[in-house]
Amino acid sequence: MASVVTETAQKIFTPETLRSAAKQSKGCLVVPVRLRRAIKRYIKEQDDPHMRREVMRLSESFCEIKEVNLQLAATTSRELVEDPMKSMEGSKRWKIKSGYGDIGLEYKDRQTAAYIASRMPANYSACYRVLSEVRRRLPDFSPTKVLDFGAGTGSALWATREVWPQSLEKVNLVEPSQSMQRAGRSLIQGMKNLPIIHGYGSIEALTKKIKKSERKHDLVIASYVLGELPSLQDRITIVRQLWDLTQDVLVLVEPGTPHGSNIISQMRSHILWMEKRKCRKSMKANSKAGKDLVDLKSGAYIVAPCPHDGRCPLENSGKYCHFVQRLQRTSSQRVYKRSKGDPLRGFEDEKFSYIAFRRGQRPQKPWPLDGMTFETLKEQLAKRKPEDLVIDYEDFIKMQTEIVPYKEYDRAANDSDVEIDADDDEDEEENEEEEEERAHADLGGGWGRIIFSPVRRGKQVHMDVCRSVTRDGSEGSFEHVVMTKSKNPTLHHQARRSLWGDLWPF
């Protein structure tokens, strides 16, 4: 058991709160009843007998787009090397004329219905996982005004409303596909306590219709859309536009593929470089004016997943940063995504890459293990008393033969085929409010990220951790951590229960 050296460290973390704060991953996510019921109603209204064929065609189209994007990225990279002046001219384009997603896939009503039936639950689960972690890392953050770029059918809107059900007041959706806009409005039809929602076909249309003083949003989301942009220059242009519309937090989510992870890494580097350059210019201007002040609102730092703001340690390593969220498949997914022969499993794993920025300077916090010392297993065994080793066999037998009461299976909570009363929506919101977080990981540099799934080898736990090596979070490294029970039973116990995507204290 850990003993605390200083009172300040004792007030910050204990071995129990360490495990609670580090837990960021979620088990098998169940899509909310509201969303499953809306998806089923929408598909039923479409009444398309060839839905399964449309789902297969949609999947093939996604594969074709990935191949085209890979070729475009390679071509753009060669142009940037061969003709730097051309890249400088392209970087001045703050507004692109063509809409995104114009490389071969146009969403019409059939493709939209296939997307809702097959892909929307998985996209929702990834967005919900990311936004849930933002909420845990920023407990004081409650967005009232949200911008969803590439909104599609509203997966991010559903996830945002589940994570912050009480704070949302206004949501702006940017989606050029009219079919998807209609589908998104149909899915939220009849829902209670909705915020004010406006839809736009492009960022240009949004900026024209909104006053300059009202363009800033507390939260800006771009999920599963940057990969559809035809070139690196267009992605940088869009991300800079989104960052200009961000007042507090910007979240980017892409598929958990090497291509998606590469896009996130590029946008990460660009935003951090751009803000560091602005800070340097501001400091020079202040020094010339005889001022020695630092604007706390200037700059940017990473909320998640990176524990630092330095260069990504996975660059040129052959590995890529991504995570996974398991979700229980909805009835529409089980029907229309059925493969040849055997039926699909009852769950699927959605792999995703993401980044969450926040404006300002990274807060300076003490590291979670500061002032804490841990006893070795030998020291713990030496402190045991003889009476602690005595076993009451009667109590032991009673514990082994204790009958666990049968818990009735709740079909309403796990099957979207069941019609639910309107009151169930309110019950779910009440349960969410009752859920309390015992502890949260601060944004200092003392929390590393478990990048890949931990491996248990005998009494050892091996973990690959991305961590900060400086107190201010300016530099990071990728390390292989081995925890043994003999040296540190407390952290070994935590390591055995850690999952891919959890935090690790330093």
TrEMBL record:
Region annotated Disordered sits at 414-440
Q: Which Pfam families match?
A: Rsm22 (PF09243)
* Source taxon at top rank: Eukaryota
What subcellular compartments does it reside in? Mitochondrion
Gene Ontology MF: a single term: structural constituent of ribosome
* Cellular component aspect of the GO annotation: mitochondrial small ribosomal subunit
Question: What does the record give as the function of this protein?
Answer: Mitochondrial ribosome (mitoribosome) assembly factor. Binds at the interface of the head and body domains of the mitochondrial small ribosomal subunit (mt-SSU), occluding the mRNA channel and preventing compaction of the head domain towards the body. Probable inactive methyltransferase: retains the characteristic folding and ability to bind S-adenosyl-L-methionine, but it probably lost its methyltransferase activity.
Write the signal peptide boundaries: none
One BP annotation, GO: methylation
What keywords tag this UniProt record? Iron, Iron-sulfur, Metal-binding, Methyltransferase, Mitochondrion, Transferase, Transit peptide
Gene3D superfamilies (alphabetical): Vaccinia Virus protein VP39
Q: Which PANTHER family match?
A: 37S RIBOSOMAL PROTEIN S22, METHYLTRANSFERASE-LIKE PROTEIN 17, MITOCHONDRIAL
Compositional bias per record (Acidic residues), positions renumbered to this chain: 416-436
Q: What is this protein called?
A: Methyltransferase-like protein 17 mitochondrial
